[in-house]
Specification:
The chain is an alpha/beta fold. The chain contains 19 helices and 18 strands.
């Protein structure tokens, strides 16, 4: 996955460093766009809007290809393009320059089209579209038909996903080479619709490679842990969940259930003494450790391969003492919810004092992130990748920045982006399930970055497997995790083209 800036650099390297002809890349991109347009709209008129840059060239190649196949094609040009266009290879197509059209004529071009192909602006555009691009984008939106955007919906920043003015609402976005980061970050993600990536002949990225990785079912298959036949519960992975203060037993239970369901062999819950009966009745698989017994807590922590601390923990002195004891341990620790709130207040230490004992994973939502970095939510959310990287750098921990999409940042500034976006996950308790899942995967030997990414994908896939939609509750998800673990491949692409390398559903 690349930013728009990185995409431009790879283009230059392909052409200047490796000798890939620009025309060859454009031909491959345009023909892939024509294939997809044919698939999305097998009949009817196709309008292709071509800007003056390379995306416009891709649209012209697609128009020529569709015309050669007998399709009813119309080309609308925005800005300067040669006439006749050499990319048409001598084909004479209906062409209408936007500058010569009044609003009614422009509306008629889009009216009744089976599909509109957006090749107006490319990945290098920053800020609000200028005239006449803004005018055609508005008219395209008013048409209300299906739209195929090339590389990025026009008006969406390919680096950040920002929308500064008018922007295309695409039904499908076809990314050439690799998906662009901006189509996976909000608000660009909702503008992009379904995201498809096409292999068009780029060389491998070389060094430096990508700084951002997209988490997909194919990636997940390569990292999920597998048990040896001759194993036992402690070798599979022991986890202790430290949480569940007064009135919050459910948070610890959700985290404990998730840790078990992703494959941890032995889970204990350390919580408030008043919660013992509730925890043991709802999670009979997990021995209970009283939170106030720091010696017993220390023994449970030291004999575990991962610790999850924070779900429902509270911020009372008992919680602070328990967190201090956990942070002394040399085992991987997931810090969630109230553990993050305590760290943001410097109790028992600050987030910048975490390094030392062992791997740490922080799981803040936007409000918790604002407290940890002492910033405004809106400012931090406006630059989510930079925010996640900053906390990872300052804390020395792996950071799961929850949101749409959720991001995983590592201290070396690598960034992972969840490929599944669904509003079904916006429900209380999903953070507890996520934290427990990360802990269960850490206990089975995954590193912090892979454990965090795998837990994000597994939780999202498990939620989708329930089929409950907006009626989903967090308690529905743990029991669906085993099915998500054993899925061979999620929903495979239904596109019959060998060039498809990625196919992501539109956000729900």
């Amino acid at each position: 996955m690349v930013t728009g800036s990185e995409a431009a650099d790879f283009d230059r390297r392909a052409m200047e460093g490796v000798g890939v002809p620009e025309a060859a890349l454009m031909e491959s991109a345009g023909r892939a766009a024509a294939d997809l347009a044919d698939h999305l709209a097998p009949r009817g008129r196709v309008v292709l809007v071509a800007g003056s840059g390379n995306n416009g060239g891709d649209a012209v190649v697609a128009a020529r290809t569709l015309a050669a196949r007998g399709r009813d094609v119309q080309v609308l040009t925005v800005g300067s393009r040669p006439d006749p266009d050499p990319l048409l290879h001598g084909w004479s197509l209906s062409r209408a320059p936007i500058e010569e059209m009044d609003p009614d004529a422009l509306a008629r071009v889009f009216d009744g089209a089976a599909l509109v192909v957006d090749g107006i602006l490319g990945t290098g555009i920053r800020g609000a579209p200028r005239s006449p691009a803004d005018r055609v984008i508005r008219a395209l939106g008013a048409g209300g038909g299906a739209v195929l955007a090339l590389d990025v919906p026009s008006g969406v920043d390919a680096d950040t996903g920002a929308v500064a003015g008018d922007a295309v609402d695409a039904t499908v976005t076809l990314c050439f080479g690799w998906p662009k980061l901006g189509v996976l970050l909000e608000p660009g993600r909702r503008r992009a619709g379904r995201v498809v990536a096409a292999e068009i002949g780029f060389p491998p990225p070389g060094d430096p490679g990508f700084r951002t990785r997209l988490l997909t079912p194919a990636w997940l298959r390569g990292v999920v842990p597998h048990r040896d036949p001759d194993t036992h519960k402690n070798r599979v992975g022991a986890v202790v969940v430290v949480g569940g203060g007064p009135g919050m037993a459910g948070a610890a239970v959700l985290a404990g259930r998730a840790a078990l369901r992703v494959g941890a062999g032995f889970v204990r819950v350390a919580g408030g003494a008043a919660n013992r009966e509730v925890v043991q009745a709802t999670l009979p698989d997990a021995p209970f450790v009283p939170l106030h017994d720091l010696q017993a807590l220390g023994e449970a922590v030291e004999s575990s391969r991962a610790v999850v601390v924070g779900p429902g923990l509270g911020t009372a002195p008992e919680a602070v003492a328990a967190l201090a004891r956990v942070l002394e341990a040399p085992v991987p620790v997931v810090l969630d919810a109230d553990a993050l709130n305590l760290l943001s207040a410097g109790r028992p230490r600050s987030v910048t004092e975490l390094a030392g004992a062992g791997p740490r994973v922080l799981t803040p939502h936007p409000g918790e992130m604002a407290r940890l970095l002492d910033g405004a939510v809106a400012d931090l959310e406006a630059r989510r990748p930079d925010t996640a990287r900053r906390l990872a750098r300052e804390s020395g921990a792996t950071v799961v920045y929850k949101g749409t999409p959720s991001l995983v940042a590592s201290p070396d500034e690598a960034l992972d982006v969840s490929g599944i976006a669904s509003s079904d996950l916006a429900v209380a308790g999903m953070g507890d399930v996520l934290a427990g899942s990360i802990g269960g995967l850490l206990a089975q030997g995954l590193g912090p970055r892979d454990a965090a990414g795998a837990a994000l994908l597994l939780g999202a896939r498990a939620a989708l497997r329930t089929g409950l939609g907006a009626g989903l509750a967090a308690s529905d998800v743990p029991d669906a995790l085993p099915g998500a673990l054993t899925e061979v491949d999620g929903r495979g692409p239904d596109l019959p083209f060998p060039w498809v390398t990625l196919d992501l559903d539109a956000p729900r």
